[in-house]
Amino acid sequence: MPEMSMIKALNNALDVMLARDPNVLIFGEDVGYFGGVFRVTDKLQEKHGATRCFDAPISEGGIVATAIGMGAYGLRPVVEIQFADYILPAYDQIVSEAARLRYRSNGEFIAPLTVRSPYGGGIYGGQTHSQSPEAIFAHVTGVKTVIPSTPYDAKGLLIAAIECNDPVIFLEPKRIYNGPFDGHHDRPVTTWAGHPGADVPEGHYTVPLGKASVVREGADVTVLTYGTMVHVSAAAIEESGVDAELIDLRSIVPLDIETIIASVRKTGRCVVVHEASRYAGFGGELAALVQERCFYHLESPVERVAGWDTPYPHAFEWDYFPGPARVSAALKRSLEMPA
């Protein structure tokens, strides 16, 4: 299997689906001739033509509204919102139209659209290019929310999203587009070369939506996370010496509750890690689910490690992120060890 970065894996997934299904098409801002601001759609217009991969006006609401109509008509549109920060103008269309179409029409119409968007910080994008809005989509019934952490998962999850008959918000952690970070500094410690998740089959395959991955087995505490924070948490576990079980959720809706319950009941402790602000973040939902289903197995309170409850602080970006030191401290607190 060839090694790919996450960008290459996503591009390959789109290439495979354009070749495999004539109803798949791609559009958004700068995705055609230019190949996308992060080059995820590079050369797809050249290969598949301007009717299959094309540019759209700067109108996020219009892009998603058009995709909803296309999906109801029988197509499978994949649209790109250039940064997740720009998705709010399309939020009404996602919530009021795409999420409800199947139910509103009693199954007569579906909305099989995939909304791709780079999300999160780590590229000095400032307040308008760095936000993590996953929680606002997780709250919406009828929308799936998917977040990969490796090239292999990125390709398999994107193909599964495109083939799904419901709308999928596909958030791509741009901080690890080209390689995982150590969480300490503004530099990649590696490219994806040599990483197990970089081995990506060239053909068609899927990673099921709603199935978590146990990245590392452990006995002392369960770490629940997704996206970039999978790599930060892995570094924290290694540095802390705690025998932690690391679970990459991969999708937060649908959520693999069974894997979470089994792990927490085994370890008796839980630490939740995400990049978005802590207050009303998805970590609060995870903590509540663990408390409801694993109460009599818990040996300590559920810990949450997250971003600050502030507007995204451009000047203090690397302090804002949960890094290995903060995650390691939470692991030790859960075990009542000195931090």
Could you please describe the fold and organization of this structure?
The structure is a single chain. By secondary structure, this protein is of the alpha/beta class. It folds into two domains: 6-198, Rossmann fold; 213-334, 3-Layer(aba) Sandwich (Rossmann fold), CATH 3.40.50.920. The chain is 34% helix and 17% strand. The protein has twelve helices and twelve strands. The protein has helices at residues 6-20, 44-48, 60-73, 91-98, 101-104, 134-138, 151-163, 228-240, 257-267, 282-294, 317-320, 324-334, and strands spanning 24-28, 53-55, 76-80, 114-119, 144-146, 168-173, 213-216, 221-225, 244-248, 251-253, 270-277, 303-307. The strands form two sheets. It has a seven-stranded mixed β-sheet with strand order 2-1-3-4-6-5-10, with helices on both faces. The protein has a five-stranded mixed β-sheet with strand order 7-9-8-11-12, sandwiched between helices. Helix 8 (228-240) links the parallel strand 8 (221-225) and strand 9. Helix 8 (228-240) crosses helix 12 and helix 9 crosses helix 10 (282-294). The radius of gyration is 19 Å and the shape is globular. The mean pLDDT is 94.
